[in-house]
Design goal:
seven-stranded mixed beta sheet; 0% helix
Length: 110
């Protein structure tokens, strides 16, 4: 299993980013995938999940602002972040089962 996140960066409050997670080594099209994040000094927080059926769920803290999606042909998971807040600052990870990538840093600051 390989998960490689990208797309993080520094963005102003209210801005947007699109995170990507390139995957390999497992059957992406029939797998549930998730995004999680870890802010400085805090534990890991679940952000969103997309099931193999395409059904999506979100943490209340991001619902309405973040959108999870996938491109099965590219074996890639996405997370669109909008209306970003300073409290969204964290390392964002994609997850498959107990596996996760190295993460991508998102910093929201003026």
């Amino acid at each position: 299993v390989q998960l490689v996140e990208s797309g993080g960066g520094l963005v102003q409050p209210g801005g947007s980013l699109r995170l990507s997670c390139a995957t390999s080594g497992f059957a992406f099209s029939v797998s549930a995938m998730s995004w999680a994040r870890q802010a400085p000094g805090k534990g890991v927080e679940w952000v969103s999940t997309i099931l193999s059926t395409g059904v999506t769920t979100y943490a209340s803290s991001v619902k309405g602002r973040f959108t999870i999606s996938r491109d099965i042909a590219k074996n890639t998971l996405y997370l669109n972040l909008s209306s970003l807040k300073p409290e969204d600052t964290a390392v964002y990870y994609c997850r498959f089962g107990s596996s996760r990538g190295q993460g991508t840093q998102v910093t929201v600051s003026a």
